[in-house]
Design brief:
alpha+beta; 5-stranded antiparallel beta sheet; 19% helix
Length: 88
């Protein structure tokens, strides 16, 4: 499941990271991605779901505002194991 959002006039896609953290179903990762190829930019964040405990359902429950808040907390991909610390 991929969702699109606009941040400062730019289109970002966001999707669950797929990597399970040490916290199991209490915390999930999200990847924010803009562009393709060498111009691609990725950011990563974690969140604790309030309702559903499966990654897909918890992601679907996030509002657009929740996603924007999580984007503002995100870190560059090179800091995150979810994307192999920015490896290509």
């Amino acid at each position: 499941m991929v969702r699109a959002m606009a941040v400062d006039g730019e289109r970002w896609e966001v999707y669950p990271a797929g990597r399970v953290t040490v916290y199991g179903r209490d915390q999930f990762g999200l990847i924010f991605e803009r562009g393709t190829g060498p111009q691609r930019s990725r950011r990563v964040t974690h969140y604790s779901p309030v309702g559903a405990r499966s990654p897909g359902r918890a992601f679907a429950e996030l509002s657009d505002r929740d996603l924007m808040d999580l984007f503002r907390q995100s870190q560059p991909a090179w800091t995150a194991p979810e994307v192999d610390y920015g490896a290509h």
